[in-house]
């Protein structure tokens, strides 16, 4: 029987996929009874993830130095994740249950390779001033969700990433009409978006 193992490389991940995977690993490793003394520490990975997310945002401006900074922050995060994966393998040995609990991808159990279904029950609900609540039905096989919004009439979408099927957006302009859409993120890069919903912000 093939021994249980985890994937210890991250080169195939896009920047967005790497952020998602790192966030999943952080959540799974916190207070994990199989791994009580993670090395490197989870707080270090959280800091590297936050720095990488910020670098991605700044790099959208296309400045060469910001692009290099994004590459550097990605490398830092990947190195920490690789080190953590080696720690997990050492501590878990061949315990498949322990390995699976870590958030790392299992080698022995391939992830589904199907396109995720279109989001269902996608809703937006204005909250207090400048905010709106977004929710959708949990999508089977989704590792995370992309929530996108823009002012009515604008072309570019602002993209937010979250592992939950509901979130609260804030910082929106009161009295303005916005458009919203969402999609699940799985193994395959192809995305199926929800219908676009428009709403005015209180």
UniProtKB/TrEMBL annotation:
It comes from the Bacteria. InterPro entries: FN3_dom (IPR003961), FN3_sf (IPR036116). SUPFAM superfamilies: Fibronectin type III (SSF49265). This is Fibronectin type III domain-containing protein.
